[in-house]
Amino acid sequence: MVKIKAAVLILALMLVAGRAGAATLRIACGSAGVDQDICRVSANVWAEKTGNQIEFVNMPNDASETLTLYRQLLNSGSDQIDVMQIDAVWPGIFANQLIDLRPYSKGQEHQSFPSLVANDTVNGRLVAMPWFIDTGLLFYRKDLLEKYHLNVPTTWDELDAYASRIQRAERASGNEKMWGFVWQGRAYEGLSCDALEWISSYNGGDVIDDRGQVTVDNPAAARALDLAAKWVGSITPRAVLNYGEEDARGVFQAGNAVFMRNWPYVWSIANRSDSPVRGRVGIASLPKGGADGKSVGALGGWQLAVSRYSRNPKLAANLVMYLTSAEVQRKRAIQASFNPTIPSLYSDKGVRQANPYMVSLLPTLNAAVARPSAVTGSEYSEVSAQFWNAAHEVLAGHDHAANALAKLSVSLKRLAPNGVWQ
Prior knowledge:
This protein is an alpha/beta fold. Helix content is 46%, strand content 12%.
């Protein structure tokens, strides 16, 4: 099915190739929705300024499908996409198929969070530019916490207790659909993020450390996954095992969940004029794993990169620099709550008025935990798939965390060269 999609995509792109006149750049930026809409507006402004043309390539909503399509196009040496929006964990996967942007950046990358620039630099080459940054956050119903005289939970145990109390009381009051906590539990990349946050919050490590050592098999990591498994069917619907970001948002925004783990983009959508929870949503850092734990959000976000097979690499790089500029990032933050990768924008008056919570996000963004993509490089997709499948087995009640993580550790060491990632 994916091969058919790729073939159709390439055919569609070939039909627009060769248009006479100004240079035409083809950009894949976001799937359907506000992400794509605001990208189109900004890219078209660049086109008008430079006298060139833009063709927009629609990509799947699912990041895994997008990754597969990119791989097929780049592995075939296709020149049918010039500028690509890539996930934070993909620079290592595609490094050899992307151009080095440093000769074209004029130092613009130094405006962004250093951790993001480091993430986008592979073997000394700046293969992508940070576009917007994400981290996992706790969304909560302000009105319900006030109603039951509860504070924002600071530990997972508190969240469990508060969610259970409010869920029980709200159901007794007539809302039988109310759940305490929703998140991303489907076997996909989103679960890797959630599970990494739980494990790291309990000081259970980062699955694979930056020295290449597999560290996931430890009691703290097992404790974290066992706790999450207890939520399923209790404060969390069993359907969460098939939830992605939008599934969780749908339940929360319909007014049927007290707490939700999701990415910052939800803020602007939850506060639209037609949202049932408009004005009743709060945002906080994710809870700690107990008194000795820490609050951790997974480092996410998207970058812009230029294919090495582009016929107009210099022009494509110019487009990337415009789209990742402070000017455009400011507009994206104000209009659609995309978190800028440029720290100075968090003190911008317009950004702060549109997104009051963003200022408080800075410590969370600085402390965000990266998935082990840099150290595993081109094998990251397999590493993550093994991790999310192990976590899903525990959440579904098919395995105990200690056993699942022990098996995962053995498998990851077998996958690594000489048992250690370099």
